[in-house]
Design brief:
alpha+beta, seven-stranded mixed β-sheet, 10 helices
Length: about 325
């Protein structure tokens, strides 16, 4: 009897391979076959090639997001209009400040020595001697409220007008002529007035120059042109057949000079008695107006007349310049 065959050795169990973690729970079996994802072998050994980000094959569900990838939808934030308004206001304030700073810089630059700002109408005033009508520069009637002694009213009437003249000793006092010649003395206009009682006469002069603004500012200095030139009495303009027929050099009693800083002009005035009486010692207007004076010049108010008519002619000249500038700008 043949010996029994040895019992078959149990076959070695197949090695157990731990399942790989899948991308997520398996999709439910709906009876359809899902093609397996293709595998590429061009990667490192044992590392399967994963599909690109966001790409899936078939109906395989995408892997769930990890905790670090979870995002929360942001709630809309309401526009803060208050902050915007504040920003706009700040920008406006800064803009105004910059503009103001620029203007201030221009003003300061103009105020620097050697770069003075020219007053408005300064250039136009240089040509008024032949551009403005005589009745504008020397009105036929000139009111002077408060111009007399004790603030009494005065009214002056024009009785003589001279043609425009060159700057010569015949129409200008010696000291004034020497002062204005280096500045470019242009022309001299003169007219003679009388007061309402026809007891006093006054010759008013407008001396136009080509002086620039800095020279004009320093012309009168700090003490005024009258004090600077001393006893420099302007010439009188007589008028044959008028109450000023006997108004000459000997009849000059008081005078005044003005060099406005904003106009290239010197205004002069000299007063005297209409009856032709001679005056031995002419006085500047401020001295003749001093309190306590008892001489004939002071008592008659000739100092008040000379200074008062000078101030009013100067005002008229400024008004004429302003009108000329306005007309020029309106063209």
């Amino acid at each position: 009897m043949a010996p029994p065959l040895p019992a078959a050795r149990p076959s070695a169990p197949a090695p157990t391979v731990a399942p790989r973690p899948g991308p997520g729970p398996a999709a439910p079996d709906d009876g359809r076959q899902v093609p397996a994802a293709p595998r590429r072998t061009d990667g490192p050994a044992g590392v399967p090639h994963l599909p690109p980000y966001g790409h899936t094959y078939g109906h395989t569900a995408p892997p769930p997001e990890g905790p670090g990838e979870t995002t929360t939808r942001l709630r809309p934030v309401r526009e803060r209009r208050t902050g915007r308004r504040i920003a706009v206001a700040v920008c406006a304030v800064l803009g105004i400040g910059l503009i103001g700073g620029s203007l201030a810089g221009v003003w300061l630059a103009a105020a620097e020595p050697g770069k003075p700002a020219e007053p408005a109408g300064y250039t136009e005033a240089m040509d008024l001697w032949h551009n403005a009508p005589v009745d504008t520069l020397f009105p036929r009637t000139l009111p002077g409220p408060g111009a007399g002694p004790g603030a009494a009213a005065r009214t002056w009437t024009r009785i003589v007008v001279a043609p425009d003249a060159a700057c010569t000793p015949a129409v200008l006092a010696k000291g004034l002529l020497a002062t204005l010649r280096p500045l470019g003395c242009e022309r001299v206009l003169r007219a003679t007035y009388t007061d309402a009682t026809a007891s006093s006469v006054l010759t008013v002069g407008l001396v136009f120059t080509r002086a620039d603004a800095p020279a004009q500012r320093t012309l009168g200095g700090t003490t005024g042109l009258t004090a600077r030139l001393g006893a420099d009495v302007p010439p009188a303009l007589s008028g044959p057949g008028t109450v000023a027929a006997r108004f000459g050099a000997a009849q000059r009693a008081s005078w005044w000079l003005s060099a406005p800083a904003d106009l290239p002009v010197v205004v002069t005035a000299v007063s005297g008695f209409a009856d032709g009486r001679a005056v031995t010692g002419p006085q500047p207007a401020d001295r003749a107006m001093a309190a306590g004076r008892t001489d004939a010049t002071a008592q008659s108010g000739l100092g008040h007349e000379a200074k008062g008519i000078t101030v009013r002619i100067e005002r008229l000249l400024r008004a004429t310049v302003a009108a000329a500038v306005k007309e020029k700008n309106a063209r």
